[in-house]
Amino acid sequence: MSGRWQRLPWELRYVHGARLASQARRAAIVATHRHCRVVFEGDAHLGPGFALNIPGDGELVIGHGVDFRSRFKCEISGNGRVHIGAGSVFTSGGLVQCSTSIDIGEGAVFGQEVLIVDGSHRFRDHTRPMLEQGYDYRPITIGRHAAVMSKVTIAADIGEHAFIGANAVVLEPVPAYSLAVGVPARVIDYFGPSDRSRSPAPAQRTSPA
Q1: The whole model's pTM is what?
Q2: In whole angstroms, how far apart are CA 145 and each of 74, 85, 88?
């Protein structure tokens, strides 16, 4: 069998090998998360390094055709809920951390090393260590066909078709069809339908996550 496999064209071996590896990862995820709710709404590609940690009663729903290319990790605490819409793409190194809810629309695209998180550390009580002060939570919604470039941190909503520049830190909601860049991210342009045009206002500075 091994010899016949090696004689197959490289492209054929790669495609079939990647598909078989993805199916094995999916089977392992389902087998090790029977205590919670993990749903695949059709086929999805789970690339190398895919990891899921749901110690409680959380929920992960993955739409048809979602592509996790490599090193994607999802951590869901308590009864948190993550829904990822059909056709979305995570390139490499994506991390999702959820304790409330994170909803990602269809066809959203995420570059390398993107962090999506619905909680931020409290730190302003100088009499206690940061890790003893708890968290502030905010459910996150990312609209359909939003595009998020590499090394972006997302801690607020992003509208549909919005474009987030590389290295941005999203601490305030970004409207649909808007270009946002910077730390903290601010809207600098609108490129959507003219009947929905609005003058972009810089995002207000908040406490860092």
Answers
A1: 0.85
A2: 20, 10, 8
Mean local confidence (pLDDT), 63-76: 97
Tell me how far apart the alpha carbons of residues 52 and 76 are, in angstroms, rounded to a whole number: 8
Q: Which single residue is written with the structure tokens 């990862």?
A: 25
Residue 32, C-beta contacts closer than 8 angstroms, at least 6 positions apart: none
Spatial CA neighbour of 92 closest among 146, 150, 144, 53: 150
Provide the H-helix boundaries in the chain. 2-7, 10-31
Q: What is the pLDDT of residue 14?
A: 53
In total, how many domains does the chain have?
1
Averaged pLDDT, 137-155: 97
What confidence tens digit (pLDDT) does each residue in 147-173 have?
999 999 999 999 999 999 999 999 999
Look at residue 186 and tell me if it is in a domain: no
Spatial strand order of the sheet with 51-53 comes to 51-53, 73-76, 95-98, 115-117, 153-154, 169-170
Four-residue CA torsion sign, 111, 114, 118, 123:
negative
Domain that holds residue 10: 2-145
d(CA 35, CA 208): 34
Whether residue 152 is contained in a domain is answered as: no
Q: Cα(102)–Cα(90) distance, rounded to whole angstroms?
A: 15
